[in-house]
Amino acid sequence: MVLLSLTASHRELDLDALERLSMGSASVGRTVVGTCRPVVGAVVISTCNRFELYLDVDAPLDGHTVGHATRHVAELVAGESGVSTQTAVGSFTVRTGPEVTEHLFAVAAGLDSMVVGEREIAGQVKRSLAVAREQETTSKTLELLFQTASRTSKRVGTDTELGAAGRSVVSLALDLAESEVSRWDTSRAVLIGTGSYAGASVAALRARGCTDIGVYSQSGRAALFAESHGVDAVDDLIAALADADVVVSCSGARGRGSHPGTTAVVGARDVPRAEPDTSPHVTAPGAAHGDGAQVGASAQEAGTPGPVSSQDRPAPEASLGHVLDAAAVVRARERAADRAGDEPEPTALVVLDLALHRDVDPQVADVEGVLLYDLASLKAHAPAVALDVVGQARDIVDDAARAFEETRLGREADAAVVALLDEAEVRVRAEVDDAVARLAEERAAAGDPPPTPEDVDGVARGVRRRIHADLHPRIVAVRAEARARARAQEAAVIEGAESITRAAGTPAHRTS
């Protein structure tokens, strides 16, 4: 077995390219396991900052099959996202073996996030494995890999200052809003979306003293979310925006498939949208959004995972609709001005768009009195972390990755070692029987009583000790041979994956 990962994140791609690549990504893991025979397991991590596939591949040493699997996955992603296969292949960083382990552990620890050290991604890594279990696409190796990544992330959180910093995309967004919010305790906040990322936003707002919070949902979940989180449900978004100081939009609803007779409530255009529980592109209900908002249509307004047919995929033009457009914001600002009358102009409205598939039309930034921060803005403002803190976290990740690789490579020899031990046990029984028989003959000849059970146990211990001592060098050799085979296989996998990348006419990515 070989671990293979194809990853695309904010580090390699701009957010526009990442958005296009990740459209309709939720079904890729299930599809690749079902259609690519060498792939025995797949786990997908899809957030506002990254789209990553982790594969467990049963591949021949020449790497041809793994190369085929790499291209096949790229073709599936291309088909779901609407980009060309060449673009999909060129967008991915391909890793194998130890590189896969090191990267996932770093991701889970928040070291590869837009906001370095944020803790939300740790929950998303856990939930990605849970979704793979539900979809029956995981494997023993991937289970061990992701569980160890979660334990490593917890160690980084408890053993370094990185875990105590309270860093997250939400906290960074609210930091940027703070320059325009004079007092949080008298400010009105409106959330668009009801997923767990909205829940994280409620907690972050309350931590700053904001208690006047409303929530709006296209899918009709606002009332339920409001009741469970102690906030107000919003039916009229325009009216709510007119009263708001801060808007946090994290619905991820842009690009949903259209359904006859359903249109978005907000905006100058009628924008097709999906009703709840019908979109195929979802994660487990209640999924939190590590590394930023969960992507995929209806990920925030999560329903039940389901297969994706060509009819279910959103048409290219569907992705052009926004949950909140400039016309809606203009109307809200006009209503706020009318209410103010002769009073001073209303304070600036800060809009925080935390969805990868932008909820908010970028033209909102051109509306007078409105400040719009999207993920690109947050990326530009993400604060640096002290090098010594990052180094300490990196050391924990590297140590855990090395230990995992030793365990994983050692498992390659398990079958051979078990066979050696079984063979040794057969020898032990045969030699013990012979030794006990000789001892019985000697005692009978001397007129002594036959060997007691204690005598037999002593003979067996001695024989087993000698045979296992002789066996130890063979076990060491078998393990070394298995590790060498595994490393050679990984090298072949790298070559196979790179050959596919070269064939696509793009440079190979293999960074750790």
Overall description:
The protein has 512 residues and is α/β, with parallel strands linked by helices. The protein has 3 domains: 2-166 and 386-398 and 490-503, Glutamyl-tRNA reductase, N-terminal domain (Beta Polymerase, domain 2); 169-381, 3-Layer(aba) Sandwich (Rossmann fold), CATH 3.40.50.720; 414-484, no CATH class. Helices cover 49% and strands 10% of the residues. It has 16 helices and 10 strands. The protein has helices spanning 15-22, 28-35, 64-81, 85-91, 98-108, 120-134, 140-159, 169-177, 196-207, 222-229, 237-243, 326-340, 375-381, 387-411, 414-445, 453-503, and strands spanning 2-9, 39-46, 50-57, 93-96, 188-192, 212-216, 232-233, 246-249, 349-353, 370-373. The strands form 2 sheets. Strands 7-6-5-8-9-10 form a 6-stranded parallel β-sheet, with helices on both faces. Helix 12 (326-340) links the parallel strand 8 and strand 9 (349-353). The longest helix has 51 residues, at 453-503. The protein is elongated. The model is unreliable at 255-320 and 506-512 (pLDDT under 50). This is Glutamyl-tRNA reductase. Homodimer. It is an enzyme of class 1 (oxidoreductase).
- Derived from helix and strand composition plus strand pairing, the structural class reads alpha/beta
Ends apart, CA distance between termini: 20 Å
What number of domains?
Answer: 3
Q: Specify the CATH architecture of the largest domain.
A: 3-Layer(aba) Sandwich
| Number of strand segments | 10
Q: Mind summarizing the main beta sheet?
A: 6 strands, parallel
> What percent of residues adopt helix (DSSP H or I)?
40-55%
The CATH first-level class of the largest domain comes to Alpha Beta
| Alpha-carbon Rg, integer | 29 Å
Mean pLDDT: 77
Order of helices and strands: EHHEEHHEHHHHEHEHEHEHEEHHHH
- Going across the major beta sheet, what is the strand order? 7-6-5-8-9-10
Report the total helices: 16
Strand content: 5-15%
- Corresponding CATH superfamily of the largest domain: NAD(P)-binding Rossmann-like Domain
The unreliable regions are: 255-320, 506-512
Indicate the overall shape: elongated
CATH topology of the largest domain: Rossmann fold
EC number: 1.2.1.70
Family: Belongs to the glutamyl-tRNA reductase family.
Subunit structure: Homodimer.
Organism: Myceligenerans pegani
